[in-house]
Design brief:
The complex is a heterodimer. Chain A is of the alpha/beta class. Chain A is built from 9 helices and 9 strands. Chain A has a 6-stranded mixed sheet, sandwiched between helices. A 3-stranded antiparallel sheet of chain A has the order 2-1-4. The mean pLDDT of chain B is about 85. The chains are: A alpha/beta, B mainly alpha.
Chain lengths: ~240, ~400
């Protein structure tokens, strides 16, 4: 599954937040979307999942835009939003059933996987509880379980680490690696740069609605030799430059 | 997807029933019967004064029908998490939305029939329209409403808008209905009906051409939230609706009034309540809305007992709406730390209410006196009635009511 964002101009109202953003995510690749608050990470993601319409440019999944074939485009995506968003009147169990229904999953098989996931995130004794009353971290886990229950080929994950306990962060990273090995593509936005550096194959650095630079950590080091070794150092240097210019 | 809509609808109806039960409690039903009886009597009396050929009658008919056509929106019953959870099923959402459309259509038709029925005698008396014409009018209203809802349906999809497209809401929901109604009332009901039928058939036949597009989730969810907000706002007139969470406005022009509170410990709650109510959109909005509606009623209604009853009803309604605000700050940790007592809290709340209801009474009083200046009984009734009501409401009813709520909360 390849995701291809080309020359995307877009935003919420008439004023574009994104100015000509292009990048791609290839099969079995984990790409980190990095940027300051307000750089346009979530806006980019909202365009990819089809919540916003591009003013110009296109977003293609396996060569298909949303307008060309809604069904083919959307069926392959699983999405974990930045702020967990759950149904107020559904229990955890019903959220899982909802996901199985929506993605047309085999019930028995999915429940097996669901129980593994629930156990991993220590939610297995809360099936009849309402996630709406959970803490932010636990609601985030519900979103993760629902997303990884699917057989999606493209995962869009928006800032998943905030509020998660260290164990859950580790488990999530393992889940992502597993899916990657199975050939799924993953786009993940995050502020946790040292984790991103260890796990992502490539990085797209957004600044003020444009792609400041992109590449593997090696490529970034070569591009900015004086900035430092870690993604953190490179990013801080770039961000400060961006502020001054 | 059909199952999903069914489940949503059952939940939605359950919720609506819950609120309707609260709205139509015994007192309100009694008050409503009086108001309906009064208005019915007024209507039938007014009809006797009317005759054929009044120049303003067709204008009123067209106006009322045009406004009534705007009643009843497309209930999609979608929820915010849908765009995450239903993402892969988007292409099947059309079946879900069709169910929602049919449900909304049923409700909207009901409203049209009701308003048409209420307007029948007026149309009969002022224009002498024939039975066939009146039936054509109803059929036309139903067609127009169907098109109206279908444009709302089209809006949920991402279609490039051109003026003729089926999602041009101004055109299909206001301009075309206005033209057809004018033609019907002044020239020919039948021609308007035929055009309306053609428009509706065309609008419905074109639906498959836009349901293949992608769904505009943001618009759809925003629309539904705004629709539900209107519904909740209505219920909020009568009872406490948890789903309405207040937004806040600065309202600098009220600063002069608010600054009159002396900054001494005993006024802690007075400070909180006065600032809270003035800036909380829900509270001040309700207050202003009810005040305006009440005053309008009083300006248009003459008589002996009706103005008194209306004054008392509206003062009660406004006061009743403000009661839940007593608990507004209970979730705030600060107020539990402040060294102030609950007597203080009650006294402050009573003072704020006294100012608010007192102002209402003065405005109503002025309206009644201006309209019924030659009817001393009504004027005395309103003044004395309001004084007694406000005193009883604030000093007898309010403390008990709050004590009861407090017991229920504990």
């Amino acid at each position: 599954m390849t995701l291809e964002v080309s020359n995307l101009v877009g935003g919420y109202s008439q004023v574009p937040v994104l100015k000509d953003v292009s990048f791609d995510v290839k099969d079995g690749e984990l790409v980190g979307l990095i940027g300051l608050n307000g750089a346009g990470k979530s806006t980019t993601i909202n365009h990819i999942i089809g919540l916003l319409t591009p003013f110009k440019g296109s977003v293609k999944i396996n060569g298909i835009t949303l307008d060309e074939d809604v069904k083919k485009y959307k069926q392959q995506i699983a999405y974990i939003p930045e702020a967990p968003i759950v149904y107020k009147e559904l229990t955890l169990k019903e959220h899982l059933e909802m996901t199985m229904l929506a993605y047309n999953l085999d019930q028995d098989e999915s429940w097996q996987r669901a129980h593994q996931l629930l156990k991993m995130f220590r939610l297995d004794n809360k099936l009849d509880w309402f996630p709406d009353n959970f803490s932010k971290g636990m609601r985030q886990k519900v979103m993760i379980v629902c997303a990884f229950l699917t057989n999606a080929k493209l995962f869009i994950i928006d800032e998943p680490f905030l509020g998660l306990d260290p164990l859950a962060v580790n488990d999530l990273l393992n889940l992502i690696s597993d899916r990657k090995k199975q050939g799924a593509s993953i786009l993940m936005s995050t502020h946790v740069l040292d984790t991103a550096q260890r796990y992502c194959d490539r990085f797209v650095l957004l600044h003020d609605g444009t792609v400041r630079t992109e590449g593997t950590i090696e490529q970034l080091r070569q591009l900015f030799p004086e900035a430092g070794d870690s993604l953190n150092d490179i990013y801080l240097t770039l961000a400060r430059e961006g502020e001054q210019s | 997807m059909n199952q999903l809509f069914k489940r949503r609808l059952v939940d939605h109806l359950k919720e609506m029933m819950k609120y309707l039960r609260l709205v139509f409690n015994d007192y309100f039903v009694l008050a409503l019967l009086f108001v309906i009886g009064g208005l019915g009597y007024y209507y039938s009396n007014a009809l006797k004064q009317l005759h054929t050929g009044l120049w303003w009658a067709p204008v009123v008919i067209i106006g009322i029908l045009l406004v009534s056509l705007q009643l009843g929106r497309f209930a999609t019953l979608v929820q915010a998490p849908d765009y995450v959870f239903l993402l892969p099923r988007e292409s099947e959402m059309v079946n879900y939305l069709k169910r929602g459309f049919n449900y909304s259509l049923g409700l909207a038709w009901l409203i049209q029939v009701l308003i048409w029925f209420l307007l029948l005698p007026f149309i009969q008396v002022t224009t002498q329209a024939s039975g066939v014409n009146l039936i054509s009018l109803l059929a036309m209203l139903i067609c127009l409403k169907t098109t109206w809802l279908n444009t709302d349906f089209a809006r949920k999809y991402r279609i490039k808008s051109t003026w003729l497209l089926r999602d041009n809401r101004l055109l299909w929901r206001l301009i075309i209905p206005a033209l057809l109604l004018i033609n019907a009332v002044y020239f020919s009901y039948l021609v308007s009906l035929i055009v309306a039928v053609l428009i509706t058939v065309d609008s419905l036949l074109r639906r498959p051409s836009w349901t293949t597009h992608s769904i505009d989730w943001k618009t759809m969810i925003d629309d539904e939230n705004s629709r539900m907000h209107t519904v909740y706002q209505f219920f909020n007139l009568f009872t406490d609706v948890p789903a309405i969470s207040g937004s806040v406005k600065r309202r600098r022009y009220l600063d002069g009034l608010l600054r009159r509170t002396k900054l001494i410990p005993k006024n802690t709650y007075l400070y909180l309540y006065s600032h809270g109510i003035a800036r909380d959109n829900e509270m001040s909005g309700l207050y202003v809305r009810l005040l305006v509606i009440g005053t309008l009623f009083l300006v248009f209604i003459q008589g002996e007992a009706l103005p008194i009853a209306l004054c008392l009803l509206f003062v009660y309604l406004i006061g009743f709406q403000m009661i839940p605000f007593y608990f507004h700050f209970d979730d705030n940790a600060f107020v539990h730390i402040y060294p102030v007592t609950h007597q203080n809290q009650m006294k402050s709340f009573q003072r704020v209410l006294l100012v608010m209801l007192g102002s209402v009474a003065v405005v109503f009083g002025i309206a009644v006196i201006a309209i019924n200046y030659n009817n001393p009984i009504t004027i005395i009734g309103v003044v004395v009635g309001e004084l007694i009501e406000i005193w009883a409401f604030i000093y007898i009813y309010l403390p008990r009511r709050i004590a009861r709520s407090q017991r229920n909360r504990a």
